[in-house]
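Why predict the complex rather than its parts? Because the way molecules touch one another can change local conformation, and only a joint prediction can capture that. The input here totals 1261 residues.
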Amino acid sequence: MKVVGARIPRYDGVAHVTGRTTYVDDVRVPGTLWAKALRSPVHHAAVTKLDTSAAESMPGVHAVITWEDVPLLEYGHLSALGIPADEPLLAKDEVRYLGQPIAVVAAESEQLAAAAVAAIDVAFEERPALLDVRAAFDPDAPKIHQWGNWYPHFENEMDRRQIRKGDIDRAFEDADTIVQGVYRPAAIEHAPIETQVCQVVPEPDGRLTIYSCTQALYFSLGVVAAHLQQPLNRFKLVGGTTGGGFGGKVDTATETVTCLLVLKANRPVKWRWTREEEFLCSSTRAPWHMELATAVTRDGWILGQKMLTLHDAGAYARFSPYGLTKHSFHHTGAYSIPHLHFDGYVVFTNRVPTTAMRGFGVTSVSFAVETHMNRIANLLGLDPIEIRLKNANRIGDTSPNGVSYTDPSTVDTLKAIADAIGHELPADYRTMTNEPRSGELLPEHLVAQVGSTEGH
Amino acid sequence: MNLTVNGAACEIDGSALTPLLDVLRDELGVTGPKAGCHQGGCGACTVLVDGEPRRSCLMPAGYAEGAEIVTVEGIGAPEDLAPIQQAFVHYYAAQCGFCTSGMLLAAQAYLARGGSDDHESIQEALAGHVCRCTGYAKIIDAVAAAARGDSFDLTTTAVGKHTTMATGGAE
Amino acid sequence: MAVASVAVDAATETMVPGSEDEAIAAFGDGVGVVVVGGGTIVVPDLTYRRIRPSKTLMLGHAGLAGIETDGAQVTIGAMTPVQDLVDLPAPLGPCAANVADLEIRSQGTVGGNLCAGDAPEAPRGDLQGAFLALGATVRFAADGEVAEEPLEDFLGEHSGRLVLGVSFDEPAAGAFAGLDRPHTHDYTALAVSGAKGNDGTLRLAVTGAGSWGARLPSAEAAAGDPEAAGKAALQDVSPRDDALASAWYRTKVLPALVRRVLTEMGASS
Amino acid sequence: MAKHTGRGIAAIEYPTGMNQNGDPSQCWIKVKPDGRIDVFAGTADIGNGSKTIQSQIVAETIGVPYDWITYDNSNTDSSPVCTGTFASRATFVAGKAAEKAAQEVKRKLLDIAGKELEIDPSDLEIVDGEVVAKGAPQTKLSVGDVAAAATWGHGELITGTGAQLKPYAAIVDPETGEVDLPPHSAISYAACSAEVEVDDETGEVRVTRLQQCYDVGRALNPSQVEGQIEGGAMMGLGLGVLENCYPYYPSVEHRGGAFGSYLAPGMEDMPQIDTIMIENPSADGPYGAKGIGEMANNPQPPAIAAAVYDAVGVWVTELPITPERVLRALEAKAEPRREGKKVVFDEELSVNAVSSGGIRFEVPA
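Output of the joint prediction:
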């Protein structure tokens, strides 16, 4: 018997194909109220008036909550790592993106909740919006965030993530060619087929049961407990079965607000975002702006790389500082590059906050580095597979942070692709392995790159 | 209104305008069809109406009056799976499962009209159904296998049609 | 069950006529009436509360579906599903086949398509260009009277009028060219239809270059030279930016699509 | 008018587990009196298949059939901590916790069995649900009998707990980014070839083939790994040529709120996909596995961009590579600026062109 390595069908496969898997939206609790949110209709504004009394007095409306109802208004996605919080659960005196939630209503039906949202008296004084990360640093840029237009809380209160390795100036001096390019992948929707949804039920013992579509049960439990300033066992988070996530359902977008509505209404409440809300108001993959300057020799050795990254975080930080740090750790791609100079900024703009998504931080840099690599090969008249094999990270080579690689496979995967497409490699490339560099593959500029693999 | 859902006659109050999806899920408690968008854009709500695949979020319930409606619950139970359901299990064609019921019913209708195992025909028949997890490859393989009339071993999954294994690296 | 996601207002009066005559009578002058054909556009508008009508006219049982051929004349009922057109000759068949996916084509109707203007995301009347190229006539009811009008005049003027059907003469030749990305979920970003009548009249029309489908008279005038006709077509449209494509892009591509249609028709006639 | 074909290559790497680590996952297991196994973990199954994988790991580690396992990740009352299903960690980190918990269960089962059989536990093994004396396969006791003996005879509850946590790799020098501990648990690698067909008149790009090779460490369930890779390929295709929240970025105008205006890849967008899986085992992952769920959408966009260049001779470096961007690039036919040994592409996109002095990207000539 070998279970590991076997093609076992999904644990929940039969439940999936018979429609019996219970997703949050399939939970049925009698007496459940519907939640609907009042959201910002503008990209950036002061909230000059917020009066919910008319909505509250409508028949069938059981609760309206605003920022005033939240015990701890700001709790960050990275607070557990000691990173300060910047985003209110519900907007207080200003809104920073179109769709930002301001107040949420619980009522007997979805249509009644929508009518109550329309009855909330709210006024805005619009402010100029900042949308281009490249203009965020300019003196005349609108000031949109309490921390300034870019995140200032990296270690030692630095305002950027830096990587410095080797001597970039020497790499540029020694280079035969310096290739510069700009790479800008787009913001992407997670677009799981199940939209953001939760159902919260008050239990006889005073606890709240939270039916959640979260990708991270304990993370979301911690977020709810922190906002409500309650111990973890006040809540039972029920989940584990999620209709697609891709990173967006780490956000804990609905759970906390729904708990607050339940505590106010003392009734079960469900908040299911519409597809339109999912597209327009839920967080996205970030758009990135990346500039690369790479020092290369005419025979295709990469001596050094300078990089500037502007990460468009949208209106609030969420996971962006984490994502940018991960990005910086992987900004050389699958290659060993001795001289590095990286500056990355988490830049705030008046768009929907961005969050984790499949490949967080690295999808962007893979596009930049690899497209740049293809350009370099093309400019130098070199084969795109050979130049990659030559510079590929090998066992013992050190990463941008100075850590040695223990299990690289760049050589293997590239050779397999060369085979698959019928691309014949010269003999010395065909025999390449992942083993530590030596001989012609260890030119002078890479000697210092070979570290120790012990201890990892 | 009188509907027949998975063989059972149901009497429904409410507006003829109410989308069939909401009648099924919220009035009848038939939760197989999923509310993925309420815009007709994803296909998670597709059911069979007199044998034809229809987006139930777009169809006013009044249009289904007197019709035979079949949801995923109606094509096969766990102990008695329809061939297309067996194919989805055996080909690992469902991941998160949220698009699966709509996908299955579109496939079921395709098979019922004599659809072949030709990949392009399958792609055309199921084109409106968004799956964000699988990349569609295994769904197409599953429908093709069901179209061929294969039988399925439910204790294992099929060897990937698009994959080869290699041992490499630095052992 | 209290968990009702239904956002359709219970207050909306629904009228479900069982025949064309009943439909005409129920529609009346059309004031305050929202017509529900297949539901593909109106039902999401209702669920998302973009419209909140006091009265709806549901045509599903009014018997307005079907394609009839009488000599050279083809008549298509307003409730005919788009899917029923896909095997017709060009430009209508390939144009219909280019609309969305099988299920949406089976639910969306010809009448609804002719009354669909642009939405924030994109122009929606995928079939309008093909019918314009065919010189189609719309049969409609208003204030209880039935009348006909060229589609060209009717587009955008459907308020107070209930579409009953559309008719045209089978063309001697026809062609359709659209952007052919295989993606199925979006509306037609840009497509050109052409048809040559039995009397030699040539009509060209576009979908996606404005709020409504539009004839391309300047291109028609230059039709002898497909390249020149393509460029001339730009005088006839004022495309705009939307979620699917920019005005710039539509302007760049329209000449090519016009040329492809003319070339194909030239080859087939 | 012409359609042109092209091919492009990319090679990538991607870390498993949270960057800088510090992300715990835990698991606990109890054994019912008939030997059936209940596994409790807090790992959400978002479609990735962690319910299946963790059940497989537990069955394999203890030595019982897969269908003896029940897996409960349904709530935070019964399940221990799991940081979550993201960062390619559900198999690698949470699966390792399950393996550790199962090892403890196995050890306890062998202890009880040793007492029942009066054999030293180190001379016993568990094979397909039976405790067997090594070298004397006729001497055996079913796991069900062992569990019964533990319950009714020895008065013991057989449980196992496992926790996986790699310590947080702090940045010791924020000026250089140097760390003192490895910031990743394992790194996975992939290479990709993309083939495209480009219409030079409409700018439409159709991806016709993706050939990919992934180092997956070890495929614990090859069908599930394929599912991740194929799903990732389509998401990568979306990144490359279709998807965009802001069609006129950085403008926020014309943002789509429907599947009709946000182009998530559909079934007809699918190219031919061929995948090669290489098993280069990770030292730290359960049974050598690496996490490849996320990276599966990373190699396609650059491979597609290079294929478009190969087809029509223009670099489109803003994603997605829409028909409009292809046509604009074809119209501009931009050549890089050459200055000394510098070759400068995309100057109009640079901060140097857009910022009025707030930020610059300086490179010596």
